[in-house]
Amino acid sequence: MSLNSIKARIIVLYVSIMAVFLIGASIFFIFYLKGVVLKPVDLSLLKKAEALDKLINSTTIKFEIFNVYGKKFEIDLSKAQLWIYSSVYSKYYFQLRTLSGKLIEKSKSLGKLSLPYSNRMKKFETIKLSGKFLRLVNYVDKKNQLIIQVAYNVENEINILERFELIIFSTLFFILFISALAGFFVSKSALEPINKIKEQIKAITEHNLNKRIDVGEVPDELKDLIESFNTLLERLRKAFLREKRFISDVSHELKTPISVIQMQCEIALRKERDSKEYKKALETIEDTISLMSSLVEKMLMVSRLERVDKSVFSEVELSSVLRSAYELLKGRADECDIDLDLNIPNDPIFVKGDKTLLVEMFVNLIDNAIKYNNKGGCVLVEVEKLGSSVVVKISDTGIGISEDEVEKVFEEFYRADKSRSKDKEGFGLGLSIVKKIAQLHGIEIKINSSANAGTTFYLVFKS
User: Fold this and answer.
1) CATH number assigned to the domain comprising residue 86
2) What is the CATH classification number for the domain harbouring 244?
3) Which tens digit of pLDDT belongs to each residue from 342-358?
4) 245 and 348: one domain?
5) Is the pLDDT at 328 greater than 50, yes or no?
6) In which domain, by residue range, is 398 found?
7) What is this structure's pTM?
8) Residue 201 within any structural domain of the chain
9) What is the pLDDT of residue 196?
10) Are residues 443 and 395 in the same domain?
11) What's the domain count of the chain?
């Protein structure tokens, strides 16, 4: 199992949280138990130190000590309070020191040893003396300028604490191990729906793109992801079908001109002919190749539009774009006896986009208006501002588009009412290119048309 897997991350996170909580709890209980075990010992040692202090200040005999002021003290070691220190086997020990640390007296239980002392020592401490753990109290008699040290052998108490720590940490590691196992099974159960989704995704190929991921028993957290994936599959299916149809349409469009070229070559080569017949055959082939070249150019344009980077769009003067399209098509309009008029405001109007693509869009629209117009008709291109939007209208007096075909005219290789446009050159790619360019620029296109009543295209540039 890789550490980069979701399962591993869940287990690590789960065990880490448990470890932090359990270690914190363990430390708390260890310190708490330490206090519980040692507090009675500390209280007992403090009482014994206070008892020794009282004994020092009593009037008894046996041996004498002098404090820093030269005052003499007599301590009777036979007193009942001192019997527990008199044996070398005793667990209790005491020492008397001056404030400077000079040893004055110690109990017989210490033998040749002595209790340590330094200015940095605390009131209560656990020390190790000759391999034994002792609990020590440092009691200061300010009146007599003495330090009374009383200690007790806490080997049993330390053993209890060590056993408790061993139990605590053994239990801790056991719980963490169980937690890791639990995390493994929990993560496996939690990720099971993802594994099922993965298997369903693997079953989807180019042959069954209509298949969808089942959202029936999937957790709510994954439903949005699955719905997004299903939406992606639907887009892929449509794109795949569109590509298949595009290839099929291209093949169909190329089949006719290729057949014409092949037929002309076969006829020309079947027998010897005069120069006029050869010239006529070559002219037919040239026209056909020109038609094929036009189709390839439009196909390349469609392909190019799929890779346009909108981040390089800049401010473009709309009137300049329309004039460029007008200049390109004015001659063609005159040849077809169509009156092409351009009505644009004098004030500059700027839109964001690619000038070359916008010119291509308007050229296709105006060319369509000329191509499907009636002889002696007209095409009018107008620009007007409506609030924050700019609307470009391209109107013609041509054959129009029936209501049921208006939505289809933007489909690739679609030509409206073929019975009325069969003598018109074209491949049905012009308006498809227009739509793609408009979508790239965020332009809304509306059509107002009906059969034999002309067509008006509205292109709305939104600010």
Assistant:
1) 3.30.450.20
2) 1.10.287.130
3) 988 888 888 888 888 89
4) no
5) yes
6) 308-461
7) 0.50
8) no
9) 79
10) yes
11) 3
- Compute the residue count for the chain: 463
Closest alpha carbon to 392 in 335, 432, 434, 337: 434
- The CA distance from 194 to 190, in Å, is 8
